[in-house]
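S1.2 Input.
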Amino acid sequence: MNHSLLARRLTPTLAVIVSALILSGCDAISSLTSAETTDNLAQQETATQTTTRQARVYRVPHFAGSNRQDLVARVYAAQTIDLAFEVSGTLIELPVREGQSIERGRPIAKLAQTDFELAVQEAQVQLRLRRNDLQRKTSLLAKRGISQSVVDDAQAEADLASVRLAQARESLRETQLLAPFDAYVAERLVDNHSNVQVAVPIVRLFDLSKLHLRANVPEALLATITTNKVTSLTAKFAFIPDQTFALSYLEHRGEADEVAQTYEVSFAMESPTDYSLLPGMTASIQLDYRNELNAEHSFEIPASALVSEPDGALSVWLLNETDNSIKRQRVTASIASNGRIRVTQGLAGNELVVSSGTAFLQDTMHIVPLTL
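S1.3 Output.
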């Protein structure tokens, strides 16, 4: 009786213990499954991160049948002159300063004038004497006191004295240098109170009313592109990133550089009033032009953007600007005259193509685009 009663009392308790053990085991299994799921998600996130790379991208031009050539140029003044005296002497005035803008006709430098003023006075006296002598001999000729040849010699001496006076006055004027145009003082080449000789440069002046930009252009481009094919010609400066400046063709040299086989081409640009652009600064020239040899829809891309497929076909990586994913796009391409790749099929224009690190890309990747 006692054993049977004990059994009946232990049975509910045992059931509770077993149920607790079962629930505990389920919780352990659930915790293990949750941990495994977390590890898998972490691994997937890590894998996703490893498929995201930084890559440079290039914007395909949106205009069809047109090409762009980027050139590096240097700024030059429309005129650069070294002013010098045509007479020698002691420099007593040099009022201009480097970096100063001066108006046309303003005094730049002056020599001591005492010797030149005395030379003018001497020439005046000599001319007066020669004219008096000529007048006396002309009177004697009228009285048949001398021959005509004597009067002719006196006339020649008077004429020579007049020339010497004009030369003396010109030398006096040459003791002062005046600005020949509205100029920018680039450099003072001598110090004040120094003795200067004829033709020794005193100051260097720039004419900045217009600027000239000179760039080295490949021979193939110069030979095939004429002014009527140019659709846009602009200059841009790195320190003025939000503004472009219109250019016009000026001239080009007739001989190529012996090493680079390029021709120096000069472009003219109006000098801006809001910025101080000076000779020696660098600029980037963007030349857009039509090329009738291209197909109707032809675009140039960097050579680094082209990918070779195992079957010999060519492709590029296109960037989806919405989520920065990439996909492979097959194209038909050839080499352009400027070394870039000319794509005639496969692109519509205005796409972004990956231009660096293309060998490491896959279709499932997302990239961080870096604009050229």
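S1.4 Remarks. Confidence is low (pLDDT under 50) at residues 1-50.
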